[in-house]
Amino acid sequence: MRRQIIAGVIATGVVTGAAFAQSAKPSDPEIAHIAYTAGALDVEAAKQALAKSRNPLVRSFAEEMLRDHEAVNRQALDLCKTLNVTPADNDTSKSLTKAAADTRAKLATLDGAAFDRAYVANEIAYHKTVNGALATVLIPSSSNAELRKLLQTGLKLFQGHELHAEHTAAQLK
Questions:
Q1: pTM score, two decimals?
Q2: pLDDT tens across 104-144, in order?
Q3: What string of DSSP letters covers the chain?
Q4: At the fourth CATH level, which superfamily is domain 2-15+27-172?
């Protein structure tokens, strides 16, 4: 039963890839909203992990997610203010939010090592999805050089998160 729940949580994380499949090129305000939303959702996931996990490896990883995603989101908001851009809600942001809420609900049913494994597995899937979207959709679609530079910086940081999550997962087995 626990393995089925963990598999369901991982599948939910992977499904978020569909959220980035937009038919039209997103505008800079939509890109800003998508990027901010993705970061905010990972902050929420990290807070859940810090509330539930007692594993020092998982807690350290969650603390890094919280710190880094909050910092990047502050930079994004500051840039939006500087550029006088209002992030625009969109179907991708809404889809990400729904998938993350579903994942948090499933993770809430787990405890101990089962929670730790499912949280880290979801973080791997989530970062793969977000990193892929940054590289193939969001960065190439951005028309503002400053926004593109922030997204590129974020991508490098988030690729490191993906590697850290994979390393953490290997240590949890």
A1: 0.87
A2: 999 999 999 999 999 999 999 999 999 999 999 999 999 99
A3: -HHHHHHHHHHHHHHHHHHT--SSPPPHHHHHHHHHHHHHHHHHHHHHHHHH---HHHHHHHHHHHHHHHHHHHHHHHHHHHHT------HHHHHHHHHHHHHHHHHHT--HHHHHHHHHHHHHHHHHHHHHHIIIIIHHH---HHHHHHHHHHHHHHHHHHHHHHHHHHHH-
A4: Ferritin, core subunit, four-helix bundle (1.20.1260.10)
Query: How large a percentage of the chain has pLDDT more than 70?
Result: 87
d(CA 148, CA 1): 44
Sign for the CA dihedral angle at 66, 72, 74, 77 comes to negative
pLDDT tens, residue by residue, 50-76: 999 999 999 999 999 999 999 999 999
Query: How far, in Å, CA of 112 to CA of 166, rounded?
Result: 19
| Spatial CA neighbour of 4 closest among 116, 114, 129, 166 | 114
* Mean pLDDT value across the chain: 89
